[in-house]
Design goal:
Blueprint (H helix, E strand, L loop, with lengths): L3 E6 L15 H17 L4 E6 L24 E5 L10 H7 L4 E7 L1 H14 L3 E10 L8 H11 L5 E3 L6
Parallel strand pairs: 1-2, 1-4, 2-3, 4-5, 5-6
Length: 169
């Protein structure tokens, strides 16, 4: 059996700012908290990905992982500045050091960082599971957030097993 890790992508305070909260923000945090607790109970590694850019400045409140799901001692934290959690980061080095070959992905933003990291992990030979009910985004002028999530759950089946959180052991 391949060793697994949970990747929590960009669940940072900025994504929960009043007036611009990510779609289903409260439900996402509740589900993430449960998934993280189950992952800890299985003694499976948890890797937090934090995005850095002009609005997500390293060390600021908006940049921090949301307190509802904050990292614990022993969790891995990887900094990134592109949508791909592998590009110019320590992610692959951390995965190899822990002999992880299966990534369980959850987080924000569905059509950007989650999508890109999913495809990149697949291309690098990792087994990938996308948690279909634990990633989110914002609506656009053309599509609702739920339509974007549903679309990506369908498309990313080419690169990952797409499962609801409750279906994942």
């Amino acid at each position: 059996m391949k060793r697994k890790a949970l990747l929590v992508i960009d669940v940072q305070n900025e994504m929960f700012q009043e007036g611009n909260v990510v779609f289903n923000g409260e439900g996402l945090l509740k589900g993430m908290k449960t998934r993280i607790e189950r992952t800890r109970a299985q003694e499976m590694p948890i890797i937090y990905i934090q995005h850095n850019d002009l609005s997500l400045v390293h060390g600021t409140y908006l940049w921090e992982v949301h307190s509802e799901i904050a990292p614990h001692e022993g969790d891995i934290i990887v900094q990134k500045n592109t949508p791909d959690s592998f590009v110019n980061t320590t992610l692959e080095q951390e995965l190899k050091a822990k002999n992880i070959q299966h990534l369980v992905l959850a987080g924000i933003q569905t059509e950007v960082c989650v999508d890109t990291t999913c495809r990149s992990a697949f291309s690098k030979g990792y087994k990938v599971t996308l948690v279909s009910d634990l990633h989110s985004t914002w609506p656009t002028t053309e599509l609702s957030a739920q339509q974007i999530i549903n679309h990506h759950n369908g498309v990313l089946r080419w690169f990952a097993d797409v499962k609801k959180s409750e279906e994942i052991l």
